Amino acid sequence: MLTGKQKRFLRSKAHHLDPIFQVGKGGVNDNMIKQISDALEARELLKISVLQNCEDDRDTVAEELSKGAKAEIVQIIGNTIVLYKESKEKKKLELPKSK
């Protein structure tokens, strides 16, 4: 689990990112989870946008994506979800240590 300090750090890093995935009418599926998992391995931090026509609410979508991709939900703001997962190969972000 991420601490408040780590979440603040990740939110500041995610601020400049653009969403690279969109969840629409079809909702969350296995293919999307696989793509998001791969993208998290490459980038560690992602923004995903939940479109108006998505049948699930953003909290459900965030929950499904974080479980499927084994990632942490950093933030849900408006219709944008920020996910974080530490990369095994390409570690870029150094999280602040929790006390």
UniProtKB/TrEMBL annotation:
Q: Which InterPro entries match?
A: RNA-binding_CRM, RNA-binding_domain, RNA-binding_YhbY, YhbY-like_sf
Xref: SUPFAM superfamilies: YhbY-like
Asked whether the keyword Cell wall biogenesis/degradation is assigned, the reply is no
One family from Pfam that matches here is CRS1_YhbY
Matching Gene3D superfamilies? YhbY-like
Sorted UniProt keywords: RNA-binding
**CRM domain ranges (all copies):** 1-96
Molecular function per GO? RNA binding
Name of protein: Ribosome assembly RNA-binding protein YhbY
Q: Which organism is it from?
A: Bacillus timonensis
